[in-house]
Description:
Elements lengths: L1 H31 L11 E8 L3 H5 L3 E7 L1 H15 L4 H10 L5 H4 L14 H8 L9 E2 L2 E7 L9 E7 L6 E2 L11 H26 L13 E3 L7 E4 L4 E6 L16 E5 H15 L5 H10 L7 H25 L8 H19 L9 H11 L2 H7 L2 H10 L3 E5 L4 E6 L9 E4 L1
Parallel strand pairs: 7-11
Antiparallel strand pairs: 1-2, 3-6, 4-5, 8-9, 9-10, 11-12, 12-13
Helix pairs in contact: 3-7, 4-6, 10-11
Amino acid sequence: MLMSVLGGMSESERQHVQARVRAAMDTQVLNEGRHQGGRAPYGYVTVDGGPHPNPRKSAEGYRLRVLAIDDESAWVVQRIFAEYLSGKGDRAIANALNHDRIQCPSARRPDQNRHRPGDGWQGGTVRAILENPRYTGYAFFGRSTKFETLLDPDDVSAGHVVRFRKASPDRVVRSRNPAHPKIVEIEDFTAAQLLRKSKGSLRSARKTERSGRALKHRYLFRGRIRCDICGRKMEGSPRKKAMYYRCPARTLAPGSPVLTSHPGAVYLREDALQDAVNGWLGHVFDRKNRDRTVAALMDSQEPVIQIGRDAAKKRLAEAEAKLTRFQNAIMAGVDPAALVEAINEAQAERLASRAALDNVPAPVEVDVAEIYAAIDLIGDVTAALRGSAPTRLEELYEAIDLQVRYKQNPHEADVSINPVGVNNARVRGGT
C-alpha cells in the first residue's frame, strides 16, 4: 500500500512537471517565436542564433538555434504550392519532381532522415509540406502530442511506449509575430488549405458511397504479400481465369536503386499460393505436430526491447555529454565555481543512470503455456482449411498474422505466422 501511494504521488509530480514545461515552451513560442528544436522543415536550415538568453545555460555553452532559408530547396516548396493551387494533386506533383530529378527531403538530408529510404518523392511527402504552416514565417508548436500506452494493460511493470498523434487545433500555439523568413505567402497557404478541405470532403463522400457496394473481387491475401526485391506490398490484379497479385515497377520512384534489379512486373497467382500455404498450415497445426510447433515458436522468440534499458542508456549519454560540455566551458575560460552545482547534478545523474542500467531486469519471454493457450484460441485450423470458405480463411490468416514474402527468380514464398498473444515469435516455412 505504501509503495502504491508513493508511486501515485511520483506519477502526479511527473505529470505536473510535464505540464509546467509544456506551458513554459508554449509561452516561449507565443512571445519570442522560439524554435524548440527538432528537424528543420524542408526548405529551411537551422543556424546559430547567438548565446542562450538564460545566463546559466549560456555559461554551460548552450546556443540558440533559429531557422533560415535554404536557397537550394526553398524554391521547391514554392513550386509545390504553385502547382497545387493550379490544380495538380499530391501524386502528380511528386511524379513531376521525380521526373525532374529533384532530391526528396530524405535524400537531401540523410543525416536527419536515417529512418527513410530516400528513394524519391511520394504523395505523403508533398502533403506534409502543403500542411506545414511554418512556411508562412510564424513559429508553431504542439501540432502533434505524445501519449503513453502500456505494453501490457495487465502488467503495468512491463513499461510503456510513446506514441504521437495529431493535436486538436486549440492545443497548437502560434507566435504573435513572424519568427523566421517566410517561403510561402499567408494568402497562398490559406488558399491551399481551403482547397484541400474541399477535396477531402468530396473524397470522403465518394469513399462512403463505395463502401456500400458489394465486393466484386475478394482478395484473400490482401496486405499480406510483399515483393522480396523492393519490400512493397503486392496489389491484387484480377484476371479472366484467376486472381493474381502483382508488384509493378512503374510505381517505383525514378532513380530508385531497386529499378536495376526489379522486373517490369512481378506476378503471383493466388490459387497456387493458397494451396501451398494451406498445406503448410495443415502440417504445422496438425495435432501430431503441435508440440513441435510450440517448440519452434519458443526457439524463435526474440528478446523484447526493454524501454527502461533504453531510457537509462539515453540518460547516461546525456549526463556524460553535459559533463563534457562543462569541461569544455572551463577550458574556454568559464569560472569553475559557477559550474560546481551543475557538475554535481550531472555526476549524480550519471551515477543514477548507471545504477538503473545495471538493475534493469532481463527480457521476459513468453511461457510455453501461453503459446499453447494462444494456439487454442485460434480454434480448429483443420476444419477451417478443409472448408476453404473465404471468410473463414481470412479470419484464420488474421488470427495467425500470416505474412508472405515472394521471391520471383526461384519462385519461392517465405511464409511466416505469429499467433496472437505470442510476442516476437514466428514459425517460418518456404513454399
